[in-house]
């Protein structure tokens, strides 16, 4: 599939809306990116137009976004670009979305401290590891004592 991948630098424009769905957790927020250029005549930086995107992040990325991001935070968002058109109130409108695969704070504009979250293990990989190591398997299908559920770091 020929998807258009983009990397956009900007700021969080709305609070993160996090929901648990049948396909896993989903986080959504609006993201604003403003182009800047140097005006030689006036010797100042000038803001260009602001572009707004709806960013969606699934599963662990979505949960970590909800726990880590606030309105106004500078971010770097990388993901799949989606452009869609809808008719609303008799007018055709265009929306630009990004299905995020990676998101991080823009460290050129501040500092942050990274905390690694718990790692989710696939049940089939856990069972294979238990059988290969001669370990017991619990009735839940994972190695006894190795049950962990991914939760956002608070």
From TrEMBL:
Which SUPFAM superfamilies does this chain map to?
Answer: Nucleic acid-binding proteins
Q: Where is this region: Disordered?
A: 130-154
Q: Can the keyword Isomerase be found in this entry's annotation?
A: no
Q: Which Pfam families match?
A: SSB (PF00436)
Asked if the keyword DNA-binding belongs to this entry, the reply reads yes
Name the UniProt key words of this record, in alphabetical order.
DNA-binding
Q: Which GO terms describe its molecular function?
A: single-stranded DNA binding
Task: Tell me which domain of life the UniProt entry assigns to the organism this sequence originates from.
Answer: Bacteria
InterPro entries per UniProt: NA-bd_OB-fold, Primosome_PriB/ssb
Q: What is this protein called?
A: Single-stranded DNA-binding protein 1
The gene behind this protein is ssb1
């Amino acid at each position: 599939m020929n998807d258009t991948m983009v990397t956009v630098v900007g700021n969080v424009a709305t609070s993160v809306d996090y929901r648990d769905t049948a396909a896993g957790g989903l986080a959504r927020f609006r993201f604003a990116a403003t182009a800047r250029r140097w005006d030689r005549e006036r010797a100042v930086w000038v803001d260009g137009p602001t572009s707004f995107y709806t960013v969606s992040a699934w599963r662990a990325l979505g949960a970590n976004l909800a726990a880590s991001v606030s309105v106004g935070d500078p971010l770097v968002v990388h993901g799949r670009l989606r452009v869609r058109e809808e008719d609303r109130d008799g007018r055709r409108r265009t929306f630009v979305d990004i299905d995020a695969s990676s998101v991080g704070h823009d460290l050129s504009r501040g500092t942050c401290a990274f905390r690694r979250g718990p790692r989710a293990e696939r049940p089939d990989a856990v069972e294979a590891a238990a059988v290969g190591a001669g370990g017991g398997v619990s009735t839940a299908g994972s190695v006894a004592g190795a049950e962990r559920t991914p939760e956002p770091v608070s």
